[in-house]
């Protein structure tokens, strides 16, 4: 068999595989060929086996939703748009805070959002108010302190006066007492001296008396002798 | 009864319609499972392969342009998943080496008895005897009814190589089919 012949048969076989209509002579030629006829039979047998085989085998159960949820499921509207909208709002808010220097201030009326100009004015007002309150408090303090000082001074003066009078009295009394004691001592001393003098005088007079008497005795005796 | 086209179901599934996705899967899961079963000769592997295929389809569904039919595209993905499956099984051997590595026919899987259908059992037994590349060509030619040109394009080889491999497969199958008919 030439190669040309073999190629022709192969082409015929291909056409037969593609379910093209072949002439009876062409089909016979294939069927009569030992190799191609076997191949035809094999293909035919396999094709017959494949018919109906698919339907009878059931597909096992599997999780169809898993892949869908992972790749195709759309997130709910709030996750899809809500989060992005919230993110945009927060971003704009953050930008506004940065650009206008907006700050959250805690005042008596509660938390307030203020921007720089308003904030400066508010701060100035607060400073003025604070200074006024401080001045008032200082003045009140000073007044009360002054009053207190006056009262304290008066109390102190009266106390000093009272105390100094008593002390002076006590001092004078002490001085008088001291003088009296001193005078008593002096009197005692003088009396003692007078007594001593008196004693000495008496002693001296007694001694002079004794001497005189002794002298007169002597003279009597001498006279007597004479 | 009015049946939605694949394109409609695909559009709806892409826009987040789960029912459309389930309909699309329901329409083709059996095709993919049969393909996977014939290619792996193992129901458990076939199930894994089917799931992997649909995960890939789901991931790439938005990229489907409709140049070819959805079924063709789906089977192309199944084909790539199948090659990956074989690569994993053969310790990540290269695609060129795949034919050589898979030259030895597989042993029929013991799980085949789970497939009750006798015809399918026979098909699986026969397919299990073929090397991977031949098995793939038989699958695409006989069961998916693609032309040699389409198979060549899908496999990235020449049309003559496809033909030569297909004829070799038929020669091998002829003997097996004869013996199985004799036994029957």
Number of helices of chain A: 7
The count of DSSP E runs of length 2 or more, i.e. the number of strands of chain B, is: 0
Helix-and-strand structural type of chain B: mainly alpha
Query: What level of helicity do the residues of chain B show?
Result: over 70%
Order of helices and strands of chain B: HHHHHHHHH
Going by helix content, strand content and strand pairing, the class of chain A is mainly alpha
Q: Based on the structure, what is the oligomeric state of the protein chains?
A: heterodimer
- Mean pLDDT reading of chain B: 81
Tag the structure with descriptive keywords.
heterodimer, A: 226 residues, mainly alpha, 7 helices, 83% helix, rod-shaped, B: 184 residues, 9 helices, globular
Account of the protein in words:
The complex is a heterodimer of chains A (226) and B (184). With 226 residues, chain A is mainly α. Chain A is 83% helix and 4% strand. Chain A is built from 7 helices and 2 strands. Chain A has helices spanning 3-17, 24-32, 34-50, 53-56, 64-71, 77-100, 116-225; strands spanning 103-107, 110-114. Chain A has a two-stranded antiparallel ribbon. In chain A, helix 1 (3-17) crosses helix 2 (24-32). The model of chain A has no long low-confidence stretch (mean pLDDT 83). Chain B is mainly alpha-helical and 184 residues long. Chain B is 72% helix and 0% strand. Chain B is built from 9 helices and no strands. In chain B, helix 3 (43-60) packs across helix 4 (70-89). In chain B, 40% of the residues are buried. The chains are: A mainly alpha (226), B mainly alpha (184). Chain A binds chain B through residues 10, 14, 17-18, 38-39, 41-43, 45-47, 49-50, 52-54, 56-57, 59-60, 62-68, 70-74, and chain B through 13-16, 18, 21-22, 25-26, 29-31, 33-34, 37, 43, 47, 50-51, 54-55, 57-59, 61, 115, 117, 119-120, 122-123, 126, 138, 141-143, 147-148, 163, 167, 170-171, 173-174, 177, 181.
